[in-house]
Amino acid sequence: MSKTINLIKSKKFKLAVLVALVFLFFLSVGFLSPVNRGNEKIVKIEKGWGSREVAEELKDEQLIKSKWLFVFFVWVRGYNKHLQAGEYLLNPKMDLFEIGRMISRGEVAPNYVKITIPEGWTNRQIEERLISSGVLEQGSKLPQEKEGYLFPDTYYFERNSSIDAIAKKMSDNFIKRISEGISENLLIDSSMKLPNAVIMASILEKEVKSDEDRAIVSGIFWKRIEDNYPLESCATIAYILGLDKKQYSYEDTRVKSPYNTYINIGLPPAPIDNPGLSAIKAALNPQYTEYNFFLSAPDGRTIFSKTLDEHNMNKLKYLK
Q: At 157, is the secondary structure helix, strand, or coil?
């Protein structure tokens, strides 16, 4: 009887050990795998840092999942004696093996420049910043067809980069941020296609600032399109003239251009800037209200009105 009991206990123990090993295996694989979220960044490793300090920095920068596993990994591989100081360009898609190997070999980042591209910037504005920062050569032009799809964000660009490399990096980030930030259900349920939503978002980006107001203005604009009524967006006039004004003249609104939403029905042929995620969400998810008109007051508030008479009174009140 005792032998049978001991045999059962032995089997239970072996099973428990096996389960524990399987659990530890999947746990370690999970922590070893890349973080896979966020953007690449420059990480500075100071002289004299050991594996613990390096691990803490990487964890703070959200490039690894576990400090202790990184310390253990570099110890097992013998990297802990060869961790080198310097600035490293690291990507959340890298796993512990790649990061540890890079730092132990001293594969420091080349001459990179940190560039922040604000939401709503045009290709021309992006070009000017990249040229002045030494990333692009004088006279470089970003592809016009990429306008709207160069995602506004903070980037690390190598000096004297090619225009194709810049455009690819920013447009790849657009795809990544859309897939991360906008649910598939919203894209499916929305009655509009993403290219049209991006065009609308580029207008919303210039017209209003708050998320709540953008959703309402999005509803106003889509309703105008449904009613075959011109959008009459001042943002499109600013894009055509290359000039921002508090209020545009009648002559300004008559300028001949396919981007002029005062004389043309529907959306412009392409985006007028590179919108951020908030504006794209508002374009895809409009809020329909009783409002039909709006204007931006000098203090930044959006003033809505239901009738044209009320709108004209608001213009006299806020814009004169």
A: strand
Q: How far apart are alpha carbons 214 and 283 in whole angstroms?
A: 8
Question: How many whole angstroms separate alpha carbon 74 and alpha carbon 204?
Answer: 49
Q: What does the pLDDT average to over 221-236?
A: 95
Quick one: pLDDT band at residue 9, thresholds 50, 70, 90?
low
Q: How many CB atoms within 10 Å of residue 202?
A: 28
The full DSSP string for 79-112 is GGG----EEEEE-TT--HHHHHHHHHHT----SE
Amino acid letter for position 187: L
Longest dimension (CA), the chain: 103
DSSP 301: P
Q: Mind listing the domains of the chain with CATH numbers?
A: 28-105 (3.30.1490.480), 112-180 (no CATH), 183-318 (no CATH)
What are the C-alpha distances in Å from 292 to residues 100, 192, 205, 295? 58, 20, 19, 11
DSSP class of 210:
S
The dihedral sign for the CA sequence 127, 129, 133, 139: positive
| Count of CB atoms situated within 10 Å of the CB of 222 | 19
Runs of H (alpha helix) within 61-193: 67-77, 96-105, 123-132, 163-181, 184-189
Distance between CA atoms of 311 and 306, rounded to whole angstroms?
Answer: 7
Which residue intervals of the chain are DSSP H helices? 2-32, 51-60, 67-77, 96-105, 123-132, 163-181, 184-189, 194-207, 211-226, 234-241, 277-284, 308-318
Tokens 């017209």: give the residue: 207
In this prediction, residue 4 carries a pLDDT of 56
User: What six digits make up the tokens of 30?
Assistant: 């999970």
Q: What pTM did the predictor assign?
A: 0.76
Nearest to 176 by CA among 37, 35, 33: 37
Q: What sign results for the dihedral spanned by CA atoms 310, 311, 315, 318? A: positive
Q: Which residue in this structure is represented by tokens 């999947």?
A: 26
